[in-house]
């Protein structure tokens, strides 16, 4: 800084500021330049931009796109002809899953858009103009950016403290829900608390005490969360964003279910709340008539019934659930009439590979399913999160160091977890993970 002031002083004489006359000349020159530029722009704007319609009698032609690689929200340009200028009639689709780009503008020969989230690797690019679909010969290389970070909680301190994210302390986190607005609600199984984590507001508050529960059911819009009591009489509490997440007793009991209930889930209609207990009884409760409870199946595979979690897959239109003691994930039809081994069943371990022929699980707990039908399973004692790819049926390691307990943020395959249990996907497709044993920590696996 001293050098730059001294240089200015040498240029302008004894002071570090320009003489008044020189300053006036500079100001005048600047104003003249702005005026000329304005006139030039005004002349160009005298005529409104022309609107060109797509001509269906002529082919849509593709020339090039740029850049050839990038990640989510990368600015993407397509060059060609006969696109028209109506944004509503143009689409740019990436990958075989046809992930749709956000179109910013079209001028008949150029499409301006933002790259959507998609699978990593080389993906096809298709352009759709009205009824015409054209594919590029070359592919776009999509780069997935991932990182594990700590949101709140401190490993080794279970003193149960509200406050800022850095001040808050947790105990035995067995339930987690990523809710609307980027916030999080967690359940402390053995402390009996439900707590609210306002990420943007940097605060943690206790919402409910003396209620022992685990993984909740969350509505698709993430504005309502239902926690089912683990033990009889299985009270259900509703937390609604409209009521500032204030807990409200929804039902006082679920008759006919005597075993422990570790989780609950909705199907795509959200007309029924589904659950199963540690005796292997699978049932549902009608949301508009909570006194109507149906037993759908009994004696479904359950192991010893502890730590088992349930998740619905819109893609498969069925449920998947973990069996903690037999190291497996099962598929379960919505009516409970059909079930089958889906992942694991190959003994306790951390091997990856085909979901039933080679993959092993290590005391699985929480699980979730994304919109594409990929299943994500938490290995509690394995200290990892694995992904079962819908297309390939291959189970791969997503995050964590197998059989290594610890607390380390960073790249997913270098990050360390300490007995993770619950997992929930947030609005942006990231994973919120809670660690269950002793002091609780809430982690985020950020995809993109």
Automatic annotation (TrEMBL):
CDD domains xrefs: IPT_PCSR
Protein name as it appears in the record: IPT/TIG domain-containing protein
Organism taxonomic ancestry: Bacteria, Pseudomonadati, Bacteroidota, Bacteroidia, Marinilabiliales
Chain segments annotated as coiled-coil in the UniProt record: none
Domain IPT/TIG intervals: 48-143
């Amino acid at each position: 800084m001293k050098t730059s002031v001294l240089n200015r002083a040498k240029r302008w004489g004894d002071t570090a500021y320009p003489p008044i006359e020189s300053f006036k000349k500079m100001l005048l020159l600047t104003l003249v330049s702005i005026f000329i530029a304005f006139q030039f722009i005004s002349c160009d704007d005298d005529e409104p931009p022309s609107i060109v319609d797509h001509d269906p009698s002529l082919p849509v032609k593709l020339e090039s796109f740029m850049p050839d690689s990038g990640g989510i929200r990368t600015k993407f340009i397509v060059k060609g002809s006969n696109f028209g200028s109506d944004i509503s009639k143009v689409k740019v689709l990436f990958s075989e899953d046809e992930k749709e780009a956000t179109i910013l503008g079209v001028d008949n020969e150029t499409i301006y858009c933002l790259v959507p989230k998609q699978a990593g690797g080389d993906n096809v690019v298709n352009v759709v103009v009205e009824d015409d679909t054209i594919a590029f010969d070359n592919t776009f290389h999509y780069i997935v950016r991932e990182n594990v970070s700590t949101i709140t909680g401190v490993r080794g301190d279970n003193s149960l403290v509200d406050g800022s994210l850095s001040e808050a302390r947790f105990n035995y986190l067995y339930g987690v829900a990523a809710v609307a607005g980027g916030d999080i609600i967690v359940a402390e199984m053995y402390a009996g608390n439900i707590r609210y984590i306002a990420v943007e507001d940097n605060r943690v508050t206790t919402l409910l005490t003396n209620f022992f529960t685990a993984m909740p059911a969350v509505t698709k819009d993430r504005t309502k969360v239902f926690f089912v009591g683990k033990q009889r009489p299985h009270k259900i509490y509703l937390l609604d964003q409209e009521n500032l997440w204030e807990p409200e007793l929804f039902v006082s009991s679920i008759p006919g279910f005597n075993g422990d209930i570790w989780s609950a889930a909705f199907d795509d209609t959200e007309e029924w709340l589904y659950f199963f207990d540690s005796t292997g009884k699978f049932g549902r409760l009608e949301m508009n008539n909570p006194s109507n409870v149906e037993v759908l199946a009994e004696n479904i595979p359950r192991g010893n019934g502890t730590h088992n979690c349930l998740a619905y897959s819109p893609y498969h239109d069925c449920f998947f659930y973990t069996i903690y003691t037999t190291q497996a994930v099962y598929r379960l039809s919505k009516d409970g009439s059909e079930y089958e081994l889906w992942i694991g069943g190959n003994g306790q371990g951390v091997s990856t590979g085909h979901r039933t022929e080679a993959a092993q699980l290590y005391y699985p707990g929480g699980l979730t399913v994304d919109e594409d039908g990929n299943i994500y399973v938490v290995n509690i004692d394995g200290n990892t999160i694995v992904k079962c790819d819908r297309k390939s049926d291959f189970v791969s390691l997503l995050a964590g160091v197998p059989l290594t307990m610890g607390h380390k943020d960073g790249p997913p395959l270098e990050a360390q977890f300490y007995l993770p249990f619950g997992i929930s996907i947030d609005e942006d497709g990231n994973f919120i993970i809670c660690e269950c044993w002793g002091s609780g920590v809430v982690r985020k696996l950020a995809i993109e």
